[in-house]
Amino acid sequence: MNTRPEQLVPAFDRLPEPEQIAQMATWLAQAGLDSLELSNEAAGLKLRIRVGQAAIAAVSPTVAAPPAQAGTAMVAVKAPYFGHLCLTHPLRDAPFAPVGAKVGQGDVVALLTLDTLQVPVPAPVAGTVVDIVAQPDALVGYGAVILNIQPD
Predict the structure, then answer these.
(1) 44-82 CB burial, b ≥16 within 10 A, e <16
(2) Do 122 and 63 touch, CB atoms closer than 8 A?
(3) Ramachandran quadrant class, 127 (left: phi over 0; alpha: psi -120 to 50; beta: rest)
């Protein structure tokens, strides 16, 4: 029995445009995944995207830090994928990066979960977490702001 709300699964009633397929391949590589398959038997559609290991290795799992400006501007931590936001460690019930926490560049500050897949959200810069924008367990999209960091 499928208990998931249907709005979580986008309609797949026609093949995506080539630019959309390329963007999906980029997201797969960024998430460290090697393939994605979409199918709609009723419409007779099947799309399989495979990303080569070279493409996965070429995409850095951490977000490049923007140029620092003497500690004045906050840096937004954005979702590198889509999924339900997890701000606490699932095995320890401890928050990854609560407000006021010092984080290093590349530290995991959250997880995005989709079924059994868990994608880490790395800090793009070292600094202090100043606010958390997104709500825990919320479904966030690619590029959504999760929290803000004041760079060191």
Answers:
(1) eeeeebebeeeebeeeeeebebeeeeeeeebbbbbbbbb
(2) yes
(3) left
Three-state secondary structure along 45-77?
EEEEEECCHHHHHHCCCCCCCCCCCCCCCCEEE
* Predicted structure pTM score: 0.56
Give me Rg for the CA atoms of the chain.
17
**Terminal-to-terminal C-alpha distance of the chain:** 49
Tokens of 95: 């928050």
User: What is the spatial distance between Cα 123 and Cα 51, in angstroms, rounded to a whole number?
Assistant: 25
3-state secondary structure of 35: strand
Domains and CATH numbers, the chain: 8-58 (no CATH), 75-151 (2.40.50.100)
Q: Sign of torsion, CA 25 31 35 38?
A: negative
Helix (H) or strand (E) holding 112: strand 108-114
Residue 151, H or E segment: strand 145-151
**Cβ neighbours of 30 (radius 10 Å):** 19
- pLDDT, tens digit, 9 for 90 and up, residues 89-138: 888 888 999 999 999 999 999 999 887 788 899 999 999 999 999 999 99
